[in-house]
């Protein structure tokens, strides 16, 4: 079950990153974060009400609040990096955040078997290579790398926090809702300050009409991100966090394949090799 839900997480995050990266090339990143998370929060509000998840409220929700504070910072940094550099470079570096939950798992006493340790090493190398790392270049590229590393740490922290925010399915719905409300509060405040300082909240071309036209895509990005957090939490609760975190971090492969399929970005030799290694690592983790 851990492998299945973790792989579902990588698929959802990969598609969400692809969609978010495309949207931020036309719309300010803060607007993408706030609007996408607002749509997801509206859907979660209905689910929480229907399932009666309010009864699961407790002290563990502070983990969801913390995840909601860190999340917008990570998403904003990541979306800005995606807008500055090729998705195939930014996405695999963002997955280095896997080091945070893996470290937490080791600290709390998890000891994967020999095959799983090998799978972790192979998969992490494959994840990085899947983007065909290009760390040399213009200042803009270096800025993209820095933003991506900030996002990576944030993503890893969110993975660890959301896994601790609930122990039941209904509790998970409530935790994800609280996380999204916090996301909106933090991201909305940042957007307000940004606009007050003269930045744009709407696309230069099309304005509000362009945002309305992009609402289906924005809703998809928000819901995919929510679903990924949910499937990761389930994966982490039903198996070793070290395994769940690495498998969930295979999303750069999904992003690279989506970029190839929809944008025609060609996979370089190192990217293809990285994707192959990631697959080998996945098999080792799932069978170890």
From TrEMBL:
<comment type="similarity">
    <text>Belongs to the EamA transporter family.</text>
</comment>
<keyword id="KW-1133">Transmembrane helix</keyword>
<feature type="transmembrane region" description="Helical">
    <location>
        <begin position="61"/>
        <end position="79"/>
    </location>
</feature>
<keyword id="KW-0472">Membrane</keyword>
<feature type="transmembrane region" description="Helical">
    <location>
        <begin position="113"/>
        <end position="132"/>
    </location>
</feature>
<feature type="transmembrane region" description="Helical">
    <location>
        <begin position="144"/>
        <end position="163"/>
    </location>
</feature>
<keyword id="KW-0812">Transmembrane</keyword>
<dbReference type="InterPro" id="IPR037185">
    <property type="entry name" value="EmrE-like"/>
</dbReference>
<protein>
    <submittedName>
        <fullName>DMT family transporter</fullName>
    </submittedName>
</protein>
<dbReference type="InterPro" id="IPR000620">
    <property type="entry name" value="EamA_dom"/>
</dbReference>
<feature type="transmembrane region" description="Helical">
    <location>
        <begin position="32"/>
        <end position="54"/>
    </location>
</feature>
<feature type="domain" description="EamA">
    <location>
        <begin position="3"/>
        <end position="130"/>
    </location>
</feature>
<feature type="domain" description="EamA">
    <location>
        <begin position="144"/>
        <end position="286"/>
    </location>
</feature>
<feature type="transmembrane region" description="Helical">
    <location>
        <begin position="169"/>
        <end position="193"/>
    </location>
</feature>
<feature type="transmembrane region" description="Helical">
    <location>
        <begin position="241"/>
        <end position="263"/>
    </location>
</feature>
<dbReference type="GO" id="GO:0016020">
    <property type="term" value="C:membrane"/>
</dbReference>
<dbReference type="Pfam" id="PF00892">
    <property type="entry name" value="EamA"/>
</dbReference>
<feature type="transmembrane region" description="Helical">
    <location>
        <begin position="214"/>
        <end position="235"/>
    </location>
</feature>
